[in-house]
Amino acid sequence: MKSLYINLLFLLFLSGLTPSALAQTAALHGSITDAETGKPLAGASIILKGSKRGAVTDDLGRFSLPSSDVNGRLLIVSMIGYERQEVLIPANQSLTVRLRSSSELLDQVVVAASRVEESSLRSPVSIEKLDSRAIRQSPSANYFEALNNVKGVDMVTSGLTYRQINTRGFNSTGNSRFLQLVDGVDNQSPGLGFSVGNLFGVSDLDVESAELIPGAASALYGPVAFNGLLYTKTKNPFDYQGLSVQQKTGINHVADPTGDGAKLFSETSVRYAKAFGNRFAFKLNASYLKGRDWYAADYTDIDPNTSPDKRGPTNPGRNALNIYGDEVAQTLPGIGRVSRTGYEERNLTTYDVYSLKLNGALHCRITPTVEAIYALNVNQGTANYTGSSRFMLNDFRLTQHRLELRGKNFFIRAYSTAENSNNSYNTRSLGQLINRAWVRDLSGNVVSPDKADATWFERYGAAYGGKVEGVTAQSNDAARTFADQGRFTPGSADFDREKDKYIHIAGLQGAGVLSQSKLYHVEGLYDFTPHVRVVNLQGGGNLRYYAMETNGTLFDDIVNKVRVSEYGAFLQVAKTILNDKLKLTLSGRYDKNQNFAGNFTPRASAVFSPNDAHHFRASYQTGFRNPTVPDQFIKLNVGPIIILGGAPANSAGLGAYENSFTSSSVGDFGAAFGQDLAAGTPFPQAVAKNKDKLVKSNVPYIRPEQSQAFEIGYKGLLTPRLLIDLSYYHGQYRNFLINQVVISPKSPVLLADGSINPAAASDVLTTANRQAYQLYTNAADRVSTEGASAGLTATLNRGYLLNINATWAQFNILDANPNNIPAFNTPRFKANAVLSNDRLTDRVGFSVAWHWQEAFDWYGTFTENRPGRIPSYSLLDAQVSYRLPSLKTTLKLGASNLANNYVVQAYGSSAVGGLYYLTLSFDELMH
């Protein structure tokens, strides 16, 4: 954190400077009002044409523009929902501009779809946008949550500080198929391989806009944008100056089914930006959120080895969803399946969560059109995340540095991301480890952890069988009570000591998760259009480098450091023909990871606009996703099996891929061999007789996933105030990443003639001569998806805005093996409706948003891909705001999930209820 403090102090020092070389007298001032009502317009943009100099109006509609030479020049005045105007600056340098309402709200300028500015109506692919005005009006608790009301979005809320976003299926709580960029910087954690939702990122006060592309964007953005892209743009300190402060205070856990009672929630955000003339500017952001997270307290018995009719609290083999330690089970002779007594998640994790976001940026305009930027982001927080287990990302820190040079038609950007998992840990492993710390043998002595499970089951069996004096025989309850003697009670000193101990031990001997991995990225883009003229032409490329550091806990990286590099380049050409009615665009990108063959991803699109109001689009899109670094290089020995990443270098010398049998054939061989041996067949003959039941595995090394999709759509203005957006897509996917278990013998699997080697067959019968591997690989199966969406946006009289949308998504498994396909985890039908009016009166505004989605089955590694039902649910968000213009302050009373419906959005995750808050916002824009 030391570097952060130095930078912040430097920026604070700059904020107090007023040297004459930097200061300029405000040469232009004025006000912007609504032409119909005469009311002042806050947030209108004023730009001096041909430069980047500009301003934004304050709550009274006023602005000032420092400049020494503005006479006789044009001023561009714009605001969402109003007609753009170009105004000649008068000699007295004071003016009032009256903006007329227009359909601009329905025809926004977007950048992410083609990496150049264009009308959203003529975007070649589906795109959605939230601007600062929409974010300000949203009834959701933050801008990230507001995306849940955007057409086509799947959002999974796991807690206050962790929400994951996805589009077009194959959803999960850790989504490595969806790219999140903040000012062009990939917000992923290098070690996890995906963005940690809203835990890291940007403060709401600094968000200018968020653009979302559903579907593959790999042709322009590379491998991570396999399923879509979210591009968040922050506010430039030249354009948004002054002090902004926001205090949000509220409660959640109202009427919580756990009976724990309401808890306080608080979020404090501060933004300060200052420009020195038109040359230097800086901004500082700080945001701190804290509260009590929602609880994962579903104790449904999900034991797969117990028939459904016998599951429940009285099942001796119970495996409760959010109780950990009870996964350890055995089948005891004469008793049946018995599981250990586990600990509830609330006793193992941390529900008092926080999120700290710090940002500082320096901007320097080298020329009127060229700007240099240095930005520093430090994010730290806690979140409960559901993956193969439940993980507590505790004090998890992400630090990012960005250097950028940006001009009118180019940019060069370099950034680094460093993570530190600090006190993060695996909650399920923690429960199992604590359970092994207190077990006593039949003599009353505490045994070592490696013997604890076996000893506990021995105690249980003895008590149940009537071999323990004073314990009722044939009673599961009595046997469990006896086996649990000495058990550490949650909250006791012994329990807390063991919990703290194992949290701080990383690797197999503890529950701690250690990663201090880094990501380095350099990229650039150049728009050649001004030089070519005949067509619109853009090109760009990037270099990326991963440096993983886990100290041997996840990778074999104590000596052999894990380093991965990749590069990519793209070219895009666009041409309008037929009197500007038909826009054709071709894009192509080539990417190369050091461990995989190069990959080319094209995109082709056509937009036909018979007039300015109606636009028909069609596109062919391709996507690909490189396996994450853990997919490639994990090497984790968990005892009976080694989990092995699929990069060839990771398994060199092990024979796991080249010299192994399928696990199913080893099972068939072992069963047949055992029967013959029991019938008196000598060992060598039994091996020779059954060895041909063994099947050599043919597991390919890991390679990228692939997709292609066709999309058609229509976007048009039925009236100047009514926008309709329709789309349909059909996609195909192949090479999905999967895991496959193989058994590798010491001897060669095959003889020279291609037959099964008897020595290898003998090896698999002996634990010392064989090794089981769980390999990362790809499935050859193909599947398809299709979907459609419809959206209607209407700007109504008196300032009302209505947005209604619905989405349908369908997964077609075709002939694929379900075990080879990642879970679709997407409801078939979703719908949203938002009604708002920012100017209900001079001072009052409101917004109401409704979200509904159909029930579906959730499959996840947390439950070993066994389904868990996510019921149909609806959410209602609402807010009412009151402005105090003289104080530049707005009060907002809001509720996220107003009806307080406790819903689980990913099976095994927390049940999320309502959040009720009061927000006080102070905004000082340039005036």
Automatic annotation (TrEMBL):
Organism for this UniProt entry: Spirosoma aureum
InterPro entries: Beta-barrel_TonB (IPR000531), Beta-barrel_TonB_sf (IPR036942), CarboxyPept-like_regulatory (IPR008969), Plug_dom (IPR012910), Plug_dom_sf (IPR037066), TonB-dep_rcpt-like (IPR039426)
Family membership: Belongs to the TonB-dependent receptor family.
Keywords: Cell outer membrane, Membrane, Receptor, Signal, TonB box, Transmembrane, Transmembrane beta strand, Transport
Pfam families for this protein: CarbopepD_reg_2, Plug, TonB_dep_Rec_b-barrel
Residue ranges annotated for the TonB-dependent receptor-like beta-barrel domain, each copy included: 427-898
Protein name per the record: TonB-dependent receptor
Gene3D superfamilies: Carboxypeptidase-like, regulatory domain (2.60.40.1120), TonB-dependent receptor, beta-barrel domain (2.40.170.20), TonB-dependent receptor, plug domain (2.170.130.10)
Annotated GO MF terms: siderophore uptake transmembrane transporter activity
Membrane topology field: Multi-pass membrane protein
Signal peptide feature range: 1-23
UniProt keyword Membrane present: yes
GO biological process: siderophore transmembrane transport
Residue intervals of the TonB-dependent receptor plug domain: 122-228
Compartment list: Cell outer membrane
Cellular component terms per the entry's GO annotation: cell outer membrane
Primary subcellular site in the record, as a coarse category: membrane
